[in-house]
Design goal:
alpha/beta, Rossmann fold, 2 domains, eight-stranded mixed sheet, six-stranded parallel sheet, 18% strand, Glycosyltransferase_grp1
């Protein structure tokens, strides 16, 4: 089959400036390309050519200001059997009009239907023209079906990781990475490291984690909170919110370290440096991909039950999911449990790794998508 994967216009693909969707496409497309002709459309970037072949995939990049216009022109000119549109419901109708015979799959990684992000008329137009919808969680899928879309044409396809990027705990590469990251950020060898990865915005809840550390430090004097992230991908701007985080962290010195933005390809090293992972989503998160990364890195997880996050959690097996998402006390209690009992933490980490190997790899994602593509192609 001839497949077009139309990336969202938030960043270039591959993810040289970060982005969960960009990483998803960059990892899944080469697997699909082993059996199909795959073209990935994304916005351009000065660090990438406008057109290239990489891993059997053709990448075509256009300036953000002309992205949709150029993509639609190309779709109309070159017939594709399947066009997968990522996170842009309004583009579905335009793609279908540009190439009526193309089967259009909408891949939803965020909430759009039933929110202010998508006008009612645009939502209905999308659902009229789309052939299938895949979502990153049941939580997102429910929002679409509530809008009247047939449940037979929608399916949650959970994301995943490339296990080759995450060495097993205790391996030579893991030890090397753990040592180098800790040395880079002056974290003592025997410190217990709690890792937070995410954008530094209120919705991601880093302020709640920071507040919880006051209690954690009292019980674990050798603990370190490692905060990886910035306001936005590949940015280092210090917003009022970030400045406030820094002021609060200064009161806990030397127990908190901020790294700002770290490139995607370096992130597995930071997971290797940690002992516990924490996600403090305050908003209804579709399903943060950091959960897959933490599990792949054999880390026990403390997260919230906001949105779809808890869908990959098996309570008490790979970590804890908290209902009291605003409560710093709830976070400190869960973190203390894991920091106090290292054997429990390691057991949960191993369980998460095995769960990832079984269910959450990009190979499985590609297999799921291929099954959907073939089903649609048969129904032409």
């Amino acid at each position: 089959m001839k497949i077009a994967m139309i990336c969202s216009d938030r960043g270039p693909c591959p993810p040289v400036k970060g982005g969960a969707i960009q990483l998803y496409i960059a990892k899944v497309a080469p697997i699909l390309a082993k059996k199909h002709k795959v073209t990935v459309f994304s916005i351009s970037d000065t660090s990438l050519p406008n057109r290239e072949n990489r891993g059997g995939v053709t990448y075509v990049r256009y300036p953000k200001s002309k992205f949709e216009q150029k993509v639609l022109k190309k779709i109309k000119k070159d017939h594709y059997d399947i066009a997968q549109v990522f996170n842009r419901p309004t583009l579905v109708t335009q793609v279908k009009k540009a190439s009526p015979k193309t089967k259009v799959v909408l891949s939803l990684h965020n909430l759009f239907f039933g929110t202010k992000r998508l006008k009612d008329k645009d939502a209905r137009a999308c659902l009229k023209h789309v052939d299938y919808i895949v979502t990153v969680s049941r939580f997102v899928a429910r929002h679409v079906t509530r809008y009247g879309f047939s449940s037979s044409k929608i399916r949650p396809v959970y994301s995943g990781v490339d296990l080759k990027d995450y060495p097993k705990r205790g391996s030579a590469r893991w030890k090397k990475w753990r040592k180098s990251v800790r040395k880079r950020w002056r974290i003592p060898k025997k410190s217990k490291v709690v890792l937070f990865v995410g954008r530094l915005v209120p919705d991601k809840g880093s302020h709640v984690v920071l507040k919880s550390m006051k209690s954690v430090i009292k019980k674990h004097r050798n603990v370190r909170l490692l905060v990886v992230g910035s306001k936005w991908y590949a940015q280092h701007e210090r917003t009022p919110y970030i400045r406030k985080l820094y002021r609060e962290a200064a009161k806990l010195n030397p127990h908190v370290t901020f790294t700002s933005y770290i490139p995607v390809n370096k992130m597995p090293r930071y997971y290797a440096a940690a002992d516990v992972f924490v996600c403090a989503s305050q908003w209804k998160e579709p399903l943060a991909r950091v959960h897959y990364e933490a599990m792949a890195a054999s880390l026990p997880i403390v997260t919230t039950r906001r949105g779809g996050n808890a869908e990959v959690m098996i309570e008490g097996k790979n970590g804890y999911s908290l209902r009291a998402y605003r409560s710093s006390k709830a976070f400190s209690t869960a973190l203390n449990k894991l920091l106090r009992n290292r054997q429990r933490a390691k057991k949960m980490g191993r369980y998460g790794r095995k769960l990832t190997e079984r269910k959450y790899t990009f190979t499985r994602v590609a297999r799921d998508l291929q099954g959907i593509y073939r089903k649609l192609d048969k129904n032409k």
